[in-house]
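FORM 7B - TANDEM STRUCTURE REPORT

SECTION 1: FIRST PROTEIN
SEQUENCE AND TOKENS:
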Amino acid sequence: MIRKVVNSYDVHVHGQLIRMVQGNEVRCTAGDYDMEKLLLNEPRGSKYMNLLVYDIEKEKLHVTVKTHFQVHNCEILLKGLVNTLIERGGLPYRDTYEVIYDEENIILSRNHLNISDLSHVDGWKGAYAVDGRMIGLLETEVVLSIENISEIKRRLTAQNDWDYTVYLNGSSQVVIDGDGEMVAHPVHEVLSVLHEQNRWGSIRHFNGAKVDIDAFEREYGHPFHFISNSQFYIDDTDIYTEGFIIK
């Protein structure tokens, strides 16, 4: 028997997956099913999914972000939510939008939803601080291509106490976070460091995403791409109460 239908929609930015759902869709219980885990794990089971649960109260967006490991590019994710809500008629046109996330009030400009400023970088000799996170750069002879993924996972690991370990081979790069997980999309703090050190006009990530840098304005674009509307049916006959995940 179908207990509940949950509606959501998915977008991606530079390959980073974002699933968005209104809070009232996940608050009602349905037996032993954990709705947030189901939304994170279904239907593709990607461990890189980010689930944004939002409520709109008095023209403010209240947002929580759920993911399997750690949240990357938080402000970009929030911009994606605001951007798509405007496009879908969930938010009116205004100059700015207030988002409350992690007990912080964040003001987002409508004209800056597809663009982010590069952050200030401190540090030297391969170790850098950006927005309170430590990024380390290391050279490697390992071929950094998707065809070589098995060797990359076997030989490259997180180092020291860095939040992000970045391995470089020519113009190719691979990023590993503090949990030891390979990050499958560009990361804001890493982009800031790479541009600061190399002054690249564009940076291509391991997943093939190309990030174009405006060096004069010190900013880069990140257009959001709609993937799908989804309906999830919570059904007593489903043996997977928390869905599945492909690692």
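SECTION 2: SECOND PROTEIN
SEQUENCE AND TOKENS:
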Amino acid sequence: MKNFNSIKEKYISLQIPEKHIDYAFNAVKSGSKREIIIKNLTSDVRKVNYESANNMLDEMFSANGGEFKYENRGGYLYSIFYLIVIITLLLIITFSNDTSLVIKLSFAAVAFLVLFLRTFIPTLKGKFRE
């Protein structure tokens, strides 16, 4: 909180109203997306300069522990779901005696493996967006 107070004081001195700084602080703390916060700060109602809003958010996100702290949760959830489906399909394939069913389920398992890799790798890199 010490960092947020210094950020707040800095941007109050730059003539940004305190209620807008409080809005940005609460939005960052709740994990809102950067684009939404900037859109709301630079709207016709708040009229905050884009550069000031961008710099303020950079500082707030770094004080909060990183910009995309909460945005990768969806990637992990999807990845876990796909992994559970893959394991289930592989178990069914292992204990099945019907060859046509094994072939169909093998294609489904490969498709889910591709989906798993397409969500898990970007999530690990911090690039997954919901």
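SECTION 3: OBSERVATIONS ON SECOND PROTEIN
The chain has a mean pLDDT of 80.
The chain has two domains: 2-64, 72-125.

SECTION 4: SIGNATURE
Preparer initials: ____
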